[in-house]
């Protein structure tokens, strides 16, 4: 997994990162069925190309390279993976 979306995204779900992603790996998008029920967005670890385009456009600074994810938000790594494995 390359990038993780963490706590600051909860309840915000600003889709600037979706628009900035060149490989369309951030979901759910506003027009997807589970957008309303998910409390944050997720980055597909198999599709992400590690470009970092999403990081500077996030208005709440919620996106971190996996190795830079603050310890307090470590659970978001598994949460992100679970979204794509389920």
Notes on the protein architecture:
The protein has about 90 residues and is an alpha+beta fold. The chain is about 20% helix and about 10% strand. It has one domain (about 5-85): Alpha-Beta Plaits (2-Layer Sandwich). It has helices spanning about 15-20, 75-85, and strands spanning about 5, 25, 40-45, 65. The longest helix is centred in the last third of the chain and has 11 residues, at about 75-85.
Q: Runs with pLDDT <50, length 5+?
A: none
E-strand count:
4
What is the fold-level CATH name, i.e. the topology? Alpha-Beta Plaits
Overall number of structural domains:
1
CATH class: Alpha Beta
Going by helix content, strand content and strand pairing, the class is alpha+beta
| C-alpha Rg (nearest Å) | 11 Å
Strands of the biggest beta sheet: in what spatial order?
1-4
Oligomer: single chain
Sheet with the most strands, sense and barrel status: 2 strands, antiparallel
Number of helices in the DSSP assignment:
2
β-sheet strand percentage: 5-15%
Report the end-to-end length measured between terminal Cα atoms.
16 Å
Residue share in helices?
A: 10-25%
Mean pLDDT: 95
Q: Can you summarize this structure?
A:
The chain is an alpha+beta fold and 86 residues long.
List descriptors:
globular; single chain; 19% helix; Alpha-Beta Plaits; alpha+beta; 4 strands; two-stranded antiparallel ribbon; 86 residues; two-stranded antiparallel sheet; 2 helices
């Amino acid at each position: 997994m390359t990038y993780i979306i963490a706590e600051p995204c909860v309840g915000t779900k600003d889709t600037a990162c979706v628009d900035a992603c060149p490989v369309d790996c951030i979901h759910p998008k506003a027009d997807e069925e589970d957008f309303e029920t998910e409390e944050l967005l997720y980055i597909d670890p198999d599709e992400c190309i590690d470009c970092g385009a999403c990081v500077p456009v996030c208005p709440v600074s919620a996106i971190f390279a996996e190795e830079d994810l603050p310890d307090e938000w470590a659970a978001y790594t598994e949460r992100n993976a679970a979204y794509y494995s389920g």
